Amino acid sequence: MSASASPLAERLGYVFRDQSLLVQALTHRSFGTPHNERLEFLGDAMLNLAIAELIFAKFPAMPEGELSRLRANLVNQTSLAAIAEENALGGSLRLGAGEIKTGGALRPSILADAVESLIGAVFLDGGFVAAEGLVKRLFASRLDAPEQEHPSKDAKTALQEWLQARGHQLPQYMVKRIEGAAHRQIFYVECVTERPAFKVEGRGATRRTAEQDAAAKIIAKIQAKGIA
Predict the structure, then answer these.
(1) What is the largest CA-CA distance in the chain?
(2) N or C, which end of the chain has less CB nearby within 10 Å?
(3) Is the predicted pLDDT of residue 135 greater than 70, yes or no?
């Protein structure tokens, strides 16, 4: 077990009965086997169910569409990577030499996957109640944030609606390149708007997340320039 695994367990507020599950959850495939990808699969499903149950109970008047948007805002890569950073997860990861050299411990995709893997590991070790308890602790501040009661639209939707409201052409998205191995691809997508005239490049683990990243960058440019 890595030296930093036990302190991490303390920060997470959960003591593993089977320490090997914790170690596996912290092991990236670049380090060796058993790695955390199967736990990530399980944790992803557990996380979505737990968040759905939590926000369903917390916001009894919220319609289905807003519940879905809120859940997406809570469990996306950006949110999960931020949670990993808040819990100093990067320093506990077991990475191969190549990933260490290229800053894998800071890479959002690796951090987000590790959070899901930990949730999956807790589910196997302690059951649904224990895993849901971990999700509650990890997401407590985000679930309690007032702005979450009225979740913002995703960046692509927000950009499209902003342009439509002003009679402008819709943005055009184009995949410029795809890098990385098949199981860890990074998509680079270009987003172009005619009015205002912007061209930016977004990146993400999927085409959709890359498009969202690009749209968010254009929205940031619009706001920075004070375009009405």
Answers:
(1) 60
(2) C
(3) yes
pLDDT in tens, 9-65: 788 899 999 999 999 999 999 999 999 999 999 999 999 999 999 999 988 888 887
Write down the catalytic residue from 116, 125, 132, 211. 116
Reported for 52-56, long-range contacts at CB under 8 A and 24+ positions apart, including other chains, are: 53/132, 54/132, 54/135, 54/136, 54/139, 54/143, 55/143
Cβ-contact 189, 201 below 8 angstroms? yes
pLDDT at 169 > cutoff 80: yes
Model pLDDT, residue 90: 86
Distances 23 to 27, 109, 161, 174 between C-alpha atoms, Å:
6, 19, 45, 40
Closest Cα partner for 131 from 224, 7, 45, 29? 45
Helix (H, G, I), strand (E, B) or coil at 227: coil
- Choosing from 40, 44, 113, 132, the catalytic residue is 44
Which residues partner with 11 through β-bridges? Answer: none
Fill in the amino acid letter for 200.
V
The whole-angstrom separation of Cα 165 and Cα 17 is 56
